[in-house]
Every structure is written in C-alpha cells, then in structure tokens.
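Q: Structure for this?
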Amino acid sequence: MTHAIEIRGVEKRFGDLQALKSVDLTVEKGEFFALLGPNGAGKTTLINILAGLSRPDAGVLKVMGYDVVRDYRAARRNLGVVPQELVFDPFLTVRESLELQSGYFGIANNGDWIEDLLSNLQLMDKADKNMRALSGGMKRRVLIAQALVHRPPVIVLDEPTAGVDVELRKVLWKFIQRLNHEGHTILLTTHYLEEAQTLCRRVGILKQGQIVALDTTENLLAGRSSQSLEDVFVAIMQDSGAGK
Amino acid sequence: MRGFRTLLFKEILRFWKVSFQTVLAPLVSTLLYLLVFSHVMSDHPDVYPGVTYAAFLIPGLTMMAMVQNAFANSSSSLVQSKVMGNMVFVLLTPLSHAEIFGAYVLAAMVRGLLVGAVVFVTGWVFFDVPIRQPLWTITFAVLSTALSGSLGILAGIWAEKFDQMAAWQNFVILPLTFLSGAFYSIHTLPPFWAALSRFNPFFYMIDGFRYGLLGSADISPWESLLIVGGACLALSWTTLAVLRSGWRLRN
C-alpha cells in the first residue's frame, strides 16, 4: 500500500551535530498528523529533506510513493510546503506570486483555484497589492496559498500559526480542515499543542533527532491518564531526557 | 516546459520592473564613458586604418555593458532570493536543475542583449559605426552574454551575502572587463601586458564582437570564437554540475 509520506532510516548530520538519527515514520493518506518536538529537535530538518530543500545522509523518503531524490518531480508535484520563515518575493504582487507558482508546477489556466484560495484565505482585497505592502499575517496567508496552488494531495505546514493572530488561526484551520475532509493529507508542526490535540488524529514526537513517541492522540492521552497533550508532551520530554 | 517558461518570464519581469536601474542606468554610464573618452581621444590616430577612436570604442563599451549586465542579472537575482529566503519558491517545485539553469541564463542574456542593443543604437546615432559582419556580431553577443549569465549563476550560488556579491563585481568582473581591450588595442600595450591580456577571456569577447562590427580586430575571430565558445561550454557544464549537486542551495 502506498503511504502519503514514508520515511525510512533517515539520517542527517551537520558537522558534529547529528540532526536526525535513523528516523522512521509513515503518514497515511487522508491523515491529519502532528509532528511535535522542542526547538532544535529536527522537525524542520526532516521537512526540508522531505521537500527536497536538503539532502539526507542516509535513508529513503517518499511522498505518495515517489522517492524525493530519484522521482523528485513527481514527489514535489504531490507535496505542498508552507515554510516556517516568513519569506516573499518583493518584486511581485499577491496574484503574480500565485500565478507564477502555478506556472512553476506546469499548471495553466489556474485562475479559478487561485480565486478560491484568495477567497478562502480572505486575501481578495490584497490580490493586486505588492507583497512588501502586506502585514506579517497577510504574508503568512499568501505563503499558505502558494503551497496549495498546485492542489497537492500532501500538505506540510511548518509552524503555520507562529506569531499570528486569532483571526488568521480560525481562517486557516477552517480551510485546512476542509482540505483534509476532501482527502488531503496534512502534516503539521506546531508549538501550540492544544491545536495539535484538537486537529490531529495521530502524533509523532521528535527529540534530539529521534522519534520518542508515535501513536494516536487518544492513546497518548490515555497512556498518561491526561486530558492535555501538553502535559503528555512535557512528561515524554522528561522521560526521554532521563534516558527511558 | 511551462515551468521553465514561467521561471524565464519571472526572471525577465524581475529586471523589467526595475528597468530604470537595470537598463537605463547602464545606458547612461556607458554613454558617459563614450562622451568623455571620444572627446579626450579625438586627436588619437586611427586604431585600425579608417576606424576613428569613437567607432573603435563603441563595440568595446557595448560588449562591456552586455557582459556586466548579464552577470549582474543572474547573480543578483540568486543572491537576493537566497538572502530574502524566497529561493524556496523555486526549489520546492518540480523544476530540474537544467530548467533552472536555462531560465536564469536566458533571462541574463535578454537583459545583456537589451542593454547592448540600446547602447549600440545610441552610439550608432551619434557616431559612424559600421556593421560589417552581422553574423559574427550576433554570435559573440549571444555567446558572451550566455557565458556571463552562467558565471553570474555560479557567483550567486557561492555568495551568501551582498558584500560577497559586490566583491565579485568589483574585484573580478570590473577589472577583467576594463582590462580587456575595451578602450585600447592590445597591440598598443607593452609586450608583457599584451601577453597577459591573452589570459583574459573578456578580451576575446570584445575582440570578436569588434571584428563583427568593424571588420578589423587584434586577433582572428576564429581564435576568439574557439576560446569564447569553449569557455561558455565549460562554464555551462560546471554550473549545471553545481546546480545538480545542490551545493549552497539545497542544504
């Protein structure tokens, strides 16, 4: 069976730092999966390797069955990534950014979907504004739209709500939940654990480059007799810190 | 092909949106050179029989503007994208390294050729410059802008800060273009400097281009074609290999 995301034995080293140690992880089609971990745990490194922004030292990663190194074209067509950093092209308007991103993926006549994205992310009145003129929250919405412009079946959101207001969170989660109900697979990293608990059916926790917990949200809570994923997360961090 | 065409369009759009800086400014600075040097050197004997100093100068200045702008286009686009972080919008797509290479080089060539055409036409209006061998002229213009665009990609990949890019411009491109025979024939140089000029690839670009326009040059256009064409191929191969490796882009 083809998994939405398949990660086997992935290793990554930056000089003396072992950023990822033999990471194994699968995310099934249609799942809403949370990848959690403290800062520096390796979440973004893993996402970057999955997206082709970095190369693994060892291991295999597949998106919808396509190897991200050997079949990178097919793998990238199936993947949409919202980067953690608030990046934008200062030469372009919002609409130009989306039209160009469609073109990079070889998609012509994508106007209807772009209008849909602008509408769902409440960007219609900003469509012809230069990216430089937008607030941080608006830039974040454009980043999300850019990641979705080619309708990827697998969507990776790397801390999409970091530093953004309540309104954007509501807009974003409503739209992402709609996409998930339509069959898109979602991989989310966040430090807002209540969001992960509400949205995600399964959770993986990374610490110092290793998966230290991987289960359904329900089982993780039941295993610690807790109502809060935050409490479970803290307990797991302490356990794994003590070498358990 | 649509992905490649889109990236090419975006790279052209990028410099066109700031055409005051990317097209008009090089025209003004090149024309200032032409105005000052052609006036100061007006009493200078003909460099080649029947070729005034101004007519000699225009091909050199045109080629200098072309290579500097082709280099600036690909290098500044890449280094800006890296520093701003928006390079991910290209790296996350299914575009191959060859498509990325092709789009950046072609956009650099478009800017270089556009600036060159504007400089040449303006010079041609005021001075009598012939076009004796159009095919040679076009060949050297195309090869030289392609070579510079490719070199710009390498520099843009290597540089991680704007001052590193400025170092390339000021310590590599500017001296090599100024000391390439743009303003003089290498036959007027002392033997040591004339011999040293033969190691400068920009000399062959300018000399071949000058042959195309004036029908006279310091060396055979075939020798220049061999060296410029060979350098262009070697540099393109190197740039493709670097892009394929992901060095300083995918890490």
